[in-house]
Design goal:
Largest sheet: 4 strands, mixed
Number of strands: 11
Low-confidence stretches: none
Strand content: 5-15%
Oligomer: single chain
Radius of gyration: 25 Å
Length: 417
């Protein structure tokens, strides 16, 4: 007898559970409060998935607390993530896959974060084009967004589009999940907040901001262009007066739904270039790891240089890569040959180039010069003949680059010195 065929009160099937598990497994990630790793879960998946299905399909599933994990932010503070157990991530994925298609139909074309067929590069391209069209930008920063989403307001939006009571039941339970801190303290939610790190949290956050900001802004002023990636928002305005009026209106709107603009991080920026020559204090903003600012640009028409307004990898992103190279301790890698070092580093290098090299790849030159210097240090540590002569070590690297120009991924793009 197949136990999966038992009749249950909630229409969650075997295939819904197994398809959700495949997605969770593909996304990888660490275990939660139960300390069950992906490898351990996979070894016992039949039993664990049946247990999850049996409880979810009967309405008796209650999610365990999420594990608090701290990751450093670029401003020196930490971002707190809430990591659910693998089993709970599967449960969240079941509901996400069930409701996402209908929510996708209502979401704004200006929203790019955590959506199928949308990505950060599309958001950056949208901001680039809008900066060329309009002179002023509002760089919005919502203070503690994920921690301040009001559950009752979010559930009104959920109920509007998801009438199924069982879905509403589980979303309420996930919103109410307590957080287990690093010190072992259990913190209960006080009617607001959804943990960053949950599978369903980004979808719920997008739904909240769809009504709190996107739809409202489109109705409030149709001349305003904006790009939103999760809680990172760039708004484009015609002139300074227009920008100030829109910023004030957005602040009031967000306050009305329980959110607040960060007073120091939110700013109005002038898109200065060869046409727009006004002198204003703010002519630069960061978005998704890129900096938008006046930059020397070569004309495609006649190859002449002019001052444009465009994006490239930000200083803080370069610093994060440099910090990562420091923690990797390239000099001390114990591989017998440079081939092993390349295989170890290439997945990281490939990721950096594919993301930060999309616009103005040449701006990565300093980052990869730093990496090449570390490869020379590795050679001097590994081979006795280079210990006393840095000149010979440099010559060795040049020889390797000439003979194996594709060995390191960044060498393929001309980052050789």
């Amino acid at each position: 007898m197949n136990l999966w065929n038992e009749t249950k009160s909630i229409p969650i099937s075997h295939s819904m559970i197994t398809n959700a598990y495949k997605k969770v497994k593909a996304n990888k990630g660490s275990g939660g409060v139960d300390q069950i790793s992906m490898e351990q879960f996979d070894a016992n998946r039949s039993k664990l998935l049946y247990k999850l299905w049996n409880r979810m399909a009967s309405g008796s599933y209650f999610p365990p607390p999420v594990k608090e994990v701290e990751i450093p932010k670029k401003d020196g503070n930490v971002r707190k993530l809430g990591i659910p157990t693998i089993s709970d991530r599967v449960g969240q994925m079941v509901v996400k896959m069930y409701i996402e298609p209908r929510l996708e139909k209502i979401f704004s074309k200006n929203s790019y974060g955590y959506r199928p067929q949308k990505n950060a590069h599309q958001a950056l391209e949208s901001v680039r084009k809008n900066c060329w069209k309009t002179d002023w930008v509002i760089d919005l920063d919502i203070k503690g967004f994920f921690d301040n989403i009001k559950h009752n307001r979010l559930m009104l939006a959920v109920e509007k589009h998801v009438p199924e009571k069982w879905v509403q039941l589980y979303i309420k339970r996930w919103l109410a999940m307590p957080v287990l801190t690093k010190s072992g303290k259990l913190i209960k939610k006080q009617g607001k907040g959804t943990p960053q790190g949950g599978v369903i949290s980004p979808l719920l956050a997008n739904l909240f901001l769809h009504y709190a900001l996107d739809k409202w802004l489109e109705n409030f002023d149709s001349t305003v262009h904006f790009t939103r990636y999760a809680d990172d928002v760039i708004v484009h305005c015609k002139n300074e007066v227009h920008a100030k009026r829109i910023l004030k209106a957005i602040g009031l709107r967000l306050n009305s739904v329980g959110l607040e603009l960060h007073p120091q991080k939110t700013k109005i920026v002038y898109c200065r270039d060869y046409r727009r020559k006004g002198k204003y204090p703010n002519i630069k903003f960061d978005f998704l790891g890129y900096s938008f600012q006046p930059r020397t640009t070569k004309s495609k028409r006649n190859n002449k240089l002019f001052l444009g307004f465009d994006c490239a990898i930000s200083i803080s992103s370069k610093k994060r890569i440099a910090d990562k190279l420091e923690t990797l301790k390239v000099k001390k890698l114990s591989y017998k040959s440079i081939v092993g070092v390349a295989q170890h580093l290439n997945p990281l290098i490939r990721g950096w180039i594919r993301y930060y090299g999309k616009f103005r790849i040449s701006e990565l030159h300093r980052v990869f010069r730093l990496l090449n210097q570390r490869l020379i240090r590795w050679a001097r540590q590994r081979y006795k003949r280079y210990k006393t002569s840095i000149k010979r070590a440099y010559k060795w690297l040049k020889t390797v680059q000439e003979q194996y120009s594709t060995l390191f991924y960044h060498w393929q793009f001309g980052f050789l010195d």
